[in-house]
Fold:
Amino acid sequence: MIREAMPEYLTTIGLEIHAQVRTVSKMFDGCSADYAGSPPNSRVSVVSLGLPGALPVVNARAIEYAARSGLALNCTVNTHSVFSRKSYPYPDLPKGFQITQYDEPLCSDGWVEIRLPSGTTRRIGIERLHIEEDTGRLVHADDGSSLIDYNRSGVPLMEIVSRPDISTPEEARLTFEKIRQILVWIGVNSGNLEEGALRCDANVSVRPLGQTSHGSKVEIKNINSFRFVERALAFEIQRQIAVLEAGGVIPQETRGWDEVRGETVGQRSKEFAHDYRYFPEPDIPPLVLSSEWIAARRAELPELPDARRARFEAVYMLSPQDADLLTLERAIADYFEAAVAAAQGVGGTPKDVANWVLNEGFRLLKERSEPAGRIAERMPVAHIATLIDLVAKGSINRGVAKQLFEECFDSGADPAQLVAERGLTQISDSDALVAVAREVIAANPKVVAEYRGGKTSAIQFLVGQMMRATRGQANPQVARALLEAELGA
Structure:
């Protein structure tokens, strides 16, 4: 069982998040970057394969997107940055080196703010964001052999390196989630962890309380799940504590996360920067950006999640919890605001819209295993406004409205048309309902006796029976008043 870190030890965590950039072509050539579902080694070129004489040309759109990402993460976009060669001999890197950035990155000195379950916030520093090329992919066969697919090789990749400001596995997960939210929000990354478009390396060390120097850093490599980040770090912290308490030494190494076994597994000793033999890429000149170019990238940014959440709370008077949920994705936030505008035309409030979206919309999306962004296709905002209007006017009650919401969600039908076609208009006429009330009372003598004996909550059962008898069309308030009058008499 995973325990929390013992209070006599301090934990230091930093994240390295690798995010593919959503460009049409690869980082240094015109080969397609859309490799998902393609046959192995079909999205390659002389540049991405590192063939002799092939020269790289920088993808301008990738630089734009990376700069936009840095600005969204509160970084400084540096006017001068340099591409470097990072040498290492892995088979998924056909050139034997990776074109990346080292001591002069594109962006530096940023931060993100995470909100803890307690409601407090923490600011996590971003040391750097640099641009590089992705590697190929090794496919391991059951017989122990490995095949190489170079389709991914050369795809533009951002590496976002946090400062060691994170102290718990939960904070690490929240930081990873927040950075994903921002990158998807501004449209530079798909956010698809399963397909490897977003991956995380977590660096962690522990040291006894009172020790000023950090412990040996262990890197947990290529984690593609928020839950796995939290679980892997929780295990690794306890593993390191156990080693230290037994008098052992923690070596600097790279480990992997084995979800089946629920533990980290040693892979290799951890390299130092000098092991990579960085030097400036001779085929790419320094990247020089003007202040006007950077200002243009800033102007391209939409209202970011934190600002939008704060506005939802201030303008629409939503609770922090509701505002959080409605700004998890930009498509949801856009949908909510469009629905508010439609509903206000019929007297609906932002809270009315939030209740429908969060309670019914999210429930149905979850039941049908569909992404949250599909709600706009499933339930046009005009239909939400119509339902709010029908309930407010007393044409239907909320129970019928919920049934209509689900049917409209699945079929796309207009709720007002369904009400008219099926005669679903709410019955509020006392003369039409009094006979139903008397029949329900006569059919349930035991419940009537309980009510008259002082159990006033028993009337809810009788109201439910009236709703059932009228196929949900009875006005619940009128039904209750009629029952109380008949029982009192």
